[in-house]
């Protein structure tokens, strides 16, 4: 049984949306060195964080 460090747990939480979207489409999240998962994560966090920035500014 492996013990995940705090950094690994945080990374897993941050990468969770992209991982779930990749699984939904039947794509391995680690294919293409994780670039597809990274793209999905950027889109998710863009949609979440951009309105927050607009509200603050």
Tell me what the structure shows.
- The chain is mainly α.
- It has one domain (6-56).
- It is built from 2 helices and no strands.
- Helix 1 crosses helix 2.
- It is flat and about 40 Å long.
- The N and C termini lie far apart (47 Å).
- 7% of the residues are buried.
Structure described in brief:
By secondary structure, the protein is an all-alpha fold.
Features of the shown structure:
transmembrane helix, transmembrane, membrane
Topology:
Layout: H1 6-25, H2 35-56
Helix pairs in contact: 1-2
Keywords: Membrane, Transmembrane, Transmembrane helix
Transmembrane segments: 35-56
Determine the number of helices (DSSP H or I, runs of at least 4 residues).
Answer: 2
Main β sheet profile = none
H and E string:
HH
Percent helix among the residues? over 70%
Look at the structure and give the mean pLDDT.
Answer: 92
Radius of gyration: 14 Å
Q: How would the global form be characterised?
A: flat
Query: What fraction of the residues are assigned to beta strands by DSSP?
Result: under 5%
- Unreliable sequence segments: none
Whole-number count of domains? 1
Structural class: mainly alpha
Distance between the termini: 47 Å
The total strand number stands at 0
Keywords: Membrane, Transmembrane, Transmembrane helix
């Amino acid at each position: 049984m492996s013990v995940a460090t705090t950094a690994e747990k945080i990374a897993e939480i941050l990468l969770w949306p992209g991982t779930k979207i990749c699984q939904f489409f039947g794509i391995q999240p680690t294919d293409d060195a994780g670039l597809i998962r990274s793209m999905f994560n950027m889109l998710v966090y863009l949609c979440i964080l951009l309105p927050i920035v607009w509200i603050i500014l």
